[in-house]
Amino acid sequence: MSDSQNNKRIAKNTLFLYIRSVLLLFINLYTSRVVLDALGVDDYGIYNVVGGVVGLFGMLSGTLASASQRFITFALGKRDAAWLKKVFSNSLTLHIVLGVIIIALLEIVGIYMLYNQLNIPEGRMGVAGIVLQSSIITLFFGMIIVPYNALIIAHERMSAFALISILGGVLKLLFALYLLICGSDRLVVYAVLQMAVTAFLWLIYYLYGRKNFPEGRNVTLHIDRDLFKQMFGFAGWNLLGQGSMVLRNQGIDILLNIFFGVSVNAAKGICNQVQHAITQFAGNFSVSIQPQLTKSVAQKDINRTHSLMLHGSRLYFFMMMIFTVPLMNVAEDVLKLWLVKVPPFTVDMVTVTLVYLQSNTLSRLLINSILAQGSIRNFQIFAGGTKLLALPIAYLVLRLGGSPLTGIWVNIALDFCCRGVELYFTHKLLRYNVWRNIFKAELPCWLTFVCALLLSYLSYRYISSNMFIAVIISFIITVATIWLVGLDKKEQSFIQNQARSVISKKLKKR
């Protein structure tokens, strides 16, 4: 398949994922509003902080998920069907085994944290225990979904991935609406229903993988020693990178609970929902490009790999801008419209988090390229170590009287440090040009962002402060700034060609 055809596939898959994300954005945001209204600030905060304890162990699943995605896609790039079947079988086995181990660990560590470390309101400890057990089972089903999810993405069946995701979002919304009329303890019901949705989605992924992919049928659960060493070695070193990110985020949530109580956890929970929604929305391009990037590395196509890394990072940054810039100006208005009651610090947390998300887009494909190459030990040691510095730094600042925004600001500062590590290793492993990335991606992207943000702010102050009008104006300003300041001629040409292709097909159908 030519680069042109691959680019068209990326554009097509991105479209599927954008449709998915448009629907999920509204579904998830409304679901969060209903859940906050039904549970109240304290119970919503309990769910987030207890779920944070489980999330600390979810990092183990994240590391093996990256290994599954990388090895399955790499095998497809090599066009080796026997190897692909063996990789999938081993991946599923490892996820099941690791899931059982994590359940055992959580029963010990999770219960200790719940009764000895977390700040839970009086009278709600028993309910928090039920939430913990439900969250543990939810995590297990989420883990054994991963190999099937990786299989769908590696085969670039983004339409199926989109439909299953939308189904999950709709079910969560329906269950959230049920909470409003539920006569039982709503926090318990919510935790159990979240577990049921995840189990059902696993069944859908299993049936789809079994029906559509040869390697998903007649799977024998076993471990190949050589492949196990490769996958577990990859996952083991990736644990520091993935784990440091989860430890950093969940650890900061726990620090906020210790220093400020569950009301600030509720604000952070809302912030996490916004972060997840926007990341899913703008991250569609990253998901679409990842299989192509891994396959180009497998085929040792250096020129294609470098092009995907550079132009992919730029386009991903600009796609994120389309959402972050308009939202930063009207964050308070949007949150007041969305939520029944806005917890303290939520507006500031969301605004600063948007800056962090914007920065993080420039790292995504650099990291993916290193993972695709496979030699990740030294990279994860340096990058993971840098990320873990967030916890002691945030703790020190909070002890000195820092605000609940401390953790997010620390994450932003360390994100730039990590980017230096990422650029060093992409140069070392893939001969990527660091200076070209700085002058063609990093600096132009941030210049475009600052220009769009400044112009949008001025329009909000001096043209209209009405939320809907301000969003429309800011959207137009952002898109125009991206086109005139951000995109180079090659990227403009690619977008124009894809637009002409879509319009031409629609005209032919008429």
List descriptors.
510 residues, mainly alpha
Helices and strands, in N-to-C order? HHHHHHHHHHHHHHHHH
Overall structural class, as computed from helix and strand content, comes to: mainly alpha
**What is the approximate shape?**
globular
How many helices? The count is 17
Distance separating the two termini: 29 Å
How many beta-strand segments?
A: 0
| Unreliable spans | none
- Largest β-sheet summary: none
Helix content: over 70%
Mean pLDDT: 82
Topology of this structure?
Blueprint: H1 3-78, H2 81-116, H3 125-154, H4 158-179, H5 186-212, H6 225-260, H7 262-282, H8 284-298, H9 302-329, H10 331-338, H11 346-373, H12 377-388, H13 390-399, H14 406-430, H15 434-462, H16 467-486, H17 489-509
Helix pairs in contact: 1-2, 1-3, 1-4, 1-5, 1-6, 1-7, 1-8, 2-3, 3-5, 4-5, 6-7, 6-12, 6-13, 7-9, 7-11, 8-9, 8-11, 9-11, 9-15, 9-16, 11-14, 12-14, 13-14, 15-16
Description:
By secondary structure, the chain is mainly alpha-helical. Helix content is 87%, strand content 0%. The chain is built from 17 helices and no strands. It has helices at 3-78, 81-116, 125-154, 158-179, 186-212, 225-260, 262-282, 284-298, 302-329, 331-338, 346-373, 377-388, 390-399, 406-430, 434-462, 467-486, 489-509. α1 (3-78) crosses α3 (125-154), α1 (3-78) crosses α5 and α15 (434-462) packs antiparallel against α16. The longest helix has 76 residues, at 3-78. The radius of gyration is 23 Å and the shape is globular. The two termini are 29 Å apart. The mean pLDDT is 82.
